[in-house]
Write a structure and sequence with these properties.
Largest sheet: 2 strands, antiparallel
Shape: extended
Radius of gyration: 19 Å
Helix content: 55-70%
Strand order of the largest sheet: 1-2
């Protein structure tokens, strides 16, 4: 796996980060999506300040992701909660086994 240095522009702020080469395209898509959301929020005029706009845009993107459904209409957020519940149940069982 090779690491590539990528220059990003998020709301006219430049960042240089290292990313695995195979993840570069997805990263650039994420930046484009974040910039589009940021531009829409900025144009609405309801929120002022670059940092607040970017935070709200990121929150919107994550919210959209959590509303996205997987196969069998299982929402990602619900899927994550189910995984967490299963992990917690496993941890409880392991703790009981360690006590014996």
């Amino acid at each position: 796996m090779s690491i590539e240095q990528v220059n990003l522009d998020i709301m006219n702020v430049n960042f240089t980060i290292n990313t695995p080469s195979e993840e570069k395209a997805t990263l650039l898509q994420a930046v484009e999506m974040l910039n589009k959301k940021s531009d829409a929020i900025k144009e609405s005029g309801r929120i002022v300040g670059t940092d607040k706009i970017v935070v709200m845009a990121a929150l919107n993107v994550v919210h959209d992701l959590l509303k996205t459904t997987l196969n069998d209409d299982l929402a990602i957020g619900e899927f994550e909660r189910k995984i967490t519940d299963m992990n917690n149940a496993c941890q409880k069982v392991l703790a009981r086994l360690e006590q014996n």
